Amino acid sequence: MNPEATARLSELLTQVTGFIYPNEIEIHWSILIVVYPYITGLVAGAFILASLENVFNVEEVRPTYRLALLTAFSFMVVAPLPLLLHLGHPERFYEILLAPNLTSAMAMFGFVYGWYLMGVLLLEVWFEYRRDLIILARRAPAPMRWIYRAASLFSSDISEAALAFDQKAIRAITIVGIPSAFLLHGYVGFIFGSVKANPWWSSVLIPIVFLMSAIVSGIALVIFLYMILAAIRKEQVDMKCLDTITSYLFYAVIVDFTLEALDFTHRLYESEESVRILGTLIRQKLFLSLIVLQILLGMLVPLAILIVAKWHQLSEDGRKLLYFTAVILIQVGIFSTRWNIVIGGQLFSKSFRGLMEYKMAIMGLEGFLTALALLILPFVVLAVLIKMLPTKPLLDEAHTAA
């Protein structure tokens, strides 16, 4: 083929849309990889909220401290399951620890996860509940008495000196845990942002966007659980606590929205060859999940709701209803964010000439029901922990667990 014909063919191919080469039709990361960063984000956000009282002395959020801590622990227990189920041979997961590849960002997750679960969350939960475990072991009937004794490591010292040491340990662990939480979820964004061949992911802002959206989702989840738990127990919601937390949520949403807008503006300014296919992707495949669910319902509407709740004279019931609506919409928006990044980043061809389809299965390891079960499982774990452990400190041995 002569050079003029070759040039003409290349020009014609640039005008072709919807064309995909045969080796570009497979989407490798499924709904499970959407669930994975969503769950880890909830862990990081809940822990950051729990740290406000211990490290930054925000006493107003004290009523949600234990709930946030248990929430982070429950979701952390389930966090690796989406990745394990996504593996072709999940029974071989331990090999990543026995023969680690230190140059692999994915391989390092095992160590980050182990450190955060065992070195941070488990220790902080234990020091926070050590006194209550001792009290519960003294009055609970068998076999729960034995479980509480074993959980307290057969400790029986609840003197003032021992309790003071517990508080110092909790504060030290929380200080270490804050950068650990940033590392846990920031590295998830790092994995996506380091894929230079994919223009939807390749951005230096992706780790920061992941981190801020994690803080937003975690705070919103704790607010949701706090209000649900109060309704189940028929207890009065601490409005001072709720107003304070929603204030932090409001500012976090603003920062998250600003970062995402900056990332989008940066892509437009660069105007690389991928801009056209990304625009087509947003208009044709991601309009509902990105424009409607993520931006409109998941971000702008909650911001408007929080503004109305904060700057208008409303009754407590009115504010609670608005807060509850806002946190639900925020969860929808953050999950849509994960969907748009993971699935959306795989819907355009590597040649930038066409778009692909993702059809989610209902059954199977990579199906909708499995993903739904993984989203429900942390709440089951949390319900068990709340049943066994008081979400409010026991005053003395005469009081029963809350």
Quick description:
The chain is built from 14 helices and no strands.
What does this structure look like?
By secondary structure, this protein is mainly alpha-helical. It has a domain at 28-194 and 362-394. It has helices at 3-14, 31-54, 65-78, 81-86, 95-98, 109-139, 144-151, 160-193, 206-233, 239-270, 275-284, 287-311, 316-342, 368-388. Helix 3 packs across helix 14 and helix 8 packs across helix 9 (206-233). The termini are far apart. The relative contact order is 0.15. Residues 397-402 have low confidence and may be disordered.
Explain the layout of strands and helices.
Elements: H1 3-14, H2 31-54, H3 65-78, H4 81-86, H5 95-98, H6 109-139, H7 144-151, H8 160-193, H9 206-233, H10 239-270, H11 275-284, H12 287-311, H13 316-342, H14 368-388
Helix pairs in contact: 2-3, 2-8, 2-9, 2-13, 2-14, 3-6, 3-9, 3-14, 6-7, 6-8, 8-9, 9-10, 9-13, 10-12, 12-13
